[in-house]
């Protein structure tokens, strides 16, 4: 399995017991959806390695307490600390309406209500306090905050995002 065929689910943040259990910080708004998983892919030595889950439960609402098969001691669990966890893309629940996954809108056209066609989404920058659409406008990068107030509509069929940005925002880049 390649990373491009998967989505990031979370990260192993700590050990939980002397029996090899770990806590995974999930990157999701719906942690309950991931309690009954049978396996996950762990980014281990730069490879995605399947790990089978013996048991799991929610711990403090957004942490998943997991006991992996064949990880039976603190020492074995130590080896997995800070490892990222992935699942295949086909396990992502389908979103409806104007909700979308970041990877899903790469390549979508962006049309602003006032400005017109802005360009094509090349990336989502989520390293800032607020995620940003990175848009290519004839070689010039335009950043538009992914703010619900700015997004009017996401049309999956047309692969288009319709936005209504504050006056002058797009002009700042041109």
Overview of this protein structure:
The protein has one helix and twelve strands. By secondary structure, it is mostly beta strands. It has two domains: 3-90, Beta Barrel (Elongation Factor Tu (Ef-tu), domain 3), CATH 2.40.30.60; 102-173, SH3 type barrels (Roll). The chain has a six-stranded antiparallel barrel. Strands 10-9-8-7-12-11 form a six-stranded mixed sheet, with no helix packed on it. A hairpin with a 3-residue loop joins β7 (109-112) and β8 (116-125). The chain starts with 5 loop residues before the first strand and ends in an 11-residue tail after the last strand. 20% of the residues are buried. The model has no long low-confidence stretch (mean pLDDT 92).
Low-confidence stretches: none
Strand order of the largest sheet: 1-2-5-4-3-6
Mean pLDDT equals 92
Q: What is the C-level CATH assignment of the largest domain? A: Mainly Beta
CATH superfamily of the largest domain: RimM
What composes the largest sheet? 6 strands, antiparallel, barrel
**Range of strand content:** over 45%
Could you give the order of the helices and strands?
EEEEEHEEEEEEE
Q: Using the 3D structure, state the CATH architecture of the largest domain.
A: Beta Barrel
